[in-house]
Design goal:
The chain has 119 residues and is mainly α. It is built from six helices and two strands. The termini are far apart.
Amino acid sequence: MLTIDPSLPTPIYEQLRDQLVSQISAGELVPGDKLPSVRQLATDLDLAPNTVARVYKELEASGYLVTRGRNGTTVAEDFSGNATHREAAALTERYLKAMNALGFNREQTVAYLQRSGSR
């Protein structure tokens, strides 16, 4: 079950993305599980469709989801089944939570990583 809390300082799209990643990493959503359409999830959560579309697109680019046009969006077959990907996802989630605890939001964390990676 996905929930959005607009009173949190975390942007809405990050809340949605983080919850989906957590559900995939925990095995609550398994490879092949079909996600609601962008419009349906936006309606269910009272969000703008562009917000949901952005999250789906980011998760697809990260290998969590696969979108097949009118056939919908599903959890990627090869992501959860690969131990290396599961370990990387868990490590990434722990890192993001630690950075959040230090006061960094997602964009600041990515910018920090990009600056650090260019040294």
